[in-house]
Amino acid sequence: MTIFLCIVIFSELGIPSEIFHTSHAHTHGTREKSPLGFIYYLINYFLLTFFVIEICLKLFSDTLGFVSEFINVFDSIVVLVSFGFQIADVDVSFVGLLRILRLIKVITEMKKQADKKKEEKEFIKQ
């Protein structure tokens, strides 16, 4: 899931935003999504929904532990703001920045998992 998220974020950031909308949409004052834009919209919607559910479950299972870590609160704010813009179908330029900030959480989690595995290997050796 982490690798998939990284691929989606980097590919979407690397593609010019004009590709996500049809060329005739600008003439009518609306921004109609191209097929590629619609696919990215659905993928983002699915991922953000998954992350909102993850946040709710973590809050339910370990409220105090979850809220006591700054990275969890920061990540939750980023996810919820992104989800709000996704639901409202608002296309703002700083949503890309929010997606990059989301990677901070992903990288932090990957580092935690790597450190945990390293500790387990060290423990087994002893």
Can you put this structure into words, describing what you see?
This protein is mainly alpha-helical and 126 residues long. The protein has one domain. It is built from five helices and no strands. The chain has helices at residues 2-14, 35-61, 63-68, 70-88, 95-125. The radius of gyration is 18 Å and the shape is globular. The mean pLDDT is 76.
Overall domain count: 1
Task: Output the radius of gyration.
Answer: 18 Å
End-to-end Cα distance, whole Å, is 33 Å
Query: How are helices and strands ordered from N to C?
Result: HHHHH
Question: Which word captures the global form?
Answer: globular
Keywords:
126 residues
What is the fold's blueprint, element by element?
Elements: H1 2-14, H2 35-61, H3 63-68, H4 70-88, H5 95-125
Helix pairs in contact: 1-5, 2-4, 4-5
Summarize it:
The chain is mainly α.
